[in-house]
């Protein structure tokens, strides 16, 4: 799948068997799904694979044992590196997915007073949630064991996952709220196409001309609507996406800063340093060192 193509957001649904209350999906044969959404909550565990993950408007690298919780209709994509697709008719990745809707065990379950902590994290899942190592490892352990379980044991294992989620406050949300509002608004089809193009092509030259072609708007109308919707200009949004991706690479990869600059879409290193320091208030090297020290604590 070529990330440089501006793909239309599609709805992809896993098949729920009639005698099951939720979906448990384990696959080591099919490439991960393209840019899509669906009405269910979803827990995605990448058992094998690495590449680029997009959740809403956050783009970052993923590795094995990547775990993300997402709410209904949050657009997302896991794009594996070419090495996982290089063998004809064979996919080298593996994932485990759990999907459930808000009323899969009755409309009152998530509204029970004892479930207030769980309800909060499900609300935050509208932007996607990424967990601390302790919480992540606890959930991964349960999900991997679920592969060999029968249906009844899987249901109670899911309750165990809910218990872990209800007890944690150690997670970060991923997508920006403004992005979610835009994709829930049916009146913003032109703007949605523009944002999808930015997310899938941020590493290339993003032009205003292309935005006007996709949105079918005049220059003034597009720029005004974009700023009103995202609380920043079109150029500032592109820079936000690029710097956000660069930050993840600085934390998670051992690539040189010049390589990271190029992969994040900057045409030269001096521009990268200038924009990075303007947005983050420190240099890329200082950011990398700071995050390394925070992780070690």
Task: Give me a quick take on this structure.
The chain has 297 residues and is an alpha+beta fold. The chain contains eleven helices and eleven strands.
Describe this protein with a few key phrases.
297 residues; Jelly Rolls; Arc Repressor Mutant, subunit A; 6-stranded antiparallel beta sheet; 44% helix; globular
Structural class: alpha+beta
Would you tell me which CATH topology of the largest domain applies? Jelly Rolls
The topology string of helices and strands comes to EEEEEEEEEHEHHEHHHHHHHH
CATH architecture of the largest domain: Sandwich
Q: What's the number of structural domains?
A: 2
Strand order of the largest sheet: 2-9-4-7-10-11
Question: How much of the sequence is in beta strands?
Answer: 15-25%
CATH superfamily of the largest domain: Jelly Rolls
Give the end-to-end Cα distance, rounded to a whole number of Å.
Answer: 39 Å
Mean pLDDT: 88
The helix content, as a percent range, equals 40-55%
Reported for the largest beta sheet, the result is: 6 strands, antiparallel
State the total count of DSSP E strands. Answer: 11
């Amino acid at each position: 799948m070529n990330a440089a193509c501006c793909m239309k957001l599609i709805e992809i649904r896993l098949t729920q068997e009639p005698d099951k209350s939720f979906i448990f999906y384990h696959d080591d044969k099919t490439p991960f799904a393209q840019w899509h959404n669906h009405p269910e909550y979803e827990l995605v565990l990448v058992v094998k694979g690495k590449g680029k993950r997009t959740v809403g408007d956050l783009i970052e690298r993923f590795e094995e044992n990547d775990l993300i919780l997402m709410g209904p209709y949050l657009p997302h994509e896991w794009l594996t590196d070419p090495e996982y697709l290089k063998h004809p008719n064979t996919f080298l990745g593996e994932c485990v997915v759990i999907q459930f809707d808000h009323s899969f065990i009755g409309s009152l379950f998530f509204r029970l007073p004892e479930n207030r902590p769980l309800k909060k994290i499900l609300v935050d899942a509208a932007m996607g949630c990424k967990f601390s190592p302790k919480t992540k490892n606890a959930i991964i352990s349960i999900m991997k064991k679920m592969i060999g379980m029968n249906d009844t044991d899987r249901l109670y294992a899911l309750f165990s996952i809910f218990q872990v989620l209800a007890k944690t406050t150690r997670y970060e949300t991923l997508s920006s709220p403004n992005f979610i509002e835009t994709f829930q608004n049916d009146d913003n089809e032109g703007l949605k196409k523009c944002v999808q193009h930015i997310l899938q092509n941020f590493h290339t030259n993003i032009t205003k001309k292309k935005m006007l072609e996709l949105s079918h708007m005049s220059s003034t109308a597009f720029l005004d609507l974009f700023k009103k919707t995202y609380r920043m200009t079109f150029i500032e949004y592109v820079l936000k996406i690029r710097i956000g991706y660069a930050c993840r690479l600085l934390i998670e990869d051992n690539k040189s800063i010049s390589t990271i600059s190029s992969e994040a879409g900057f045409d030269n290193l001096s521009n990268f340093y200038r924009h990075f320091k303007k947005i983050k208030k420190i240099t890329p090297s200082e950011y990398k060192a700071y995050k390394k020290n925070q992780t070690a604590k």
